[in-house]
Amino acid sequence: MTSGVSILGIFVADTAYLAPRMPALGETITGSGFSVGPGGKGSNQTIAAARAGAEVSFISKIGRDTFGDLALKTYEQAGVNAKLTIMDDQPTGAAFIYVNDSTGENAIIVYAGAAGTIDISDVEAARDTIGQSAVFVTQLEQPAEAARHALEIARNARVTTIFNPAPAESFPADIYGLCDFIIPNETEAATLVGFAIDTLDDAERAGDVLLSRGVGVAIITLGGRGVLFHAPGQSVHVPAVSCGPVIDTTGAGDAFVGGFAAALSRGAGPLQAVRFGCATAGIAVTRRGTTPAMPMLVEIEAVMAR
User: Fold this and answer.
1) Where, by residue number, is the active site (predicted)?
2) How many domains does the chain have?
């Protein structure tokens, strides 16, 4: 019996700094806020999917340290099945996040720490977890070879595969053919296809390029302009869902991916799952932080019912 979502990715402790601007090199400026909380794309997507009602297993590596303790507590509270290797010789990952205190825009530096050592043997150890899920999700914060191997396991087990090519690092070209869904944002899509995504027509053109490389469906997230769902013979622009003032876009993409995966795992059709993902992200951007911003299923359903 296949059910739920399995996610391969990294956990990092997000250290977020609110300020009016980024300091120049050699300059110190005064910030207006600070927080430490759980983060990392895979981890954020895990919490988003779990809060959106899915059964979720998260596959990763952490260090035996304070940030690692934060990870364990986060998954316990969210009811996530954490498949974590704990390392003694590597720290848990961490991220520096600058958030502009008036626009909510962000800039991020990520150090994967222990999760940066995820390799094919770690993925093999999680083969059963991946193969028994309905939907598998991964990204590029851990090494691309590990992501590719996990996608291959999922594909061979007839598990629906979602690949979020973020950050926009290079990866083996044969990954495309292992993706039922590829979900880049407009910046990542531009990097993959080699031209800017300024208009919906550009996004459709990028979708065509991704399909030509072997992807099943390309879903390009366009920030406040919503999402382009691009499948063979079908291209649909799904508008963003507004749930109030946007104050922090840091976890928006992860909220979308987690919500989308959760909806698919419960049997929603792909377009319905995109709308569910848009509602999930629409709520998340009205709150500060990444993991703490992820909405509960009841909140998403209320937005979907409007």
Assistant:
1) 254 (proton acceptor)
2) 1
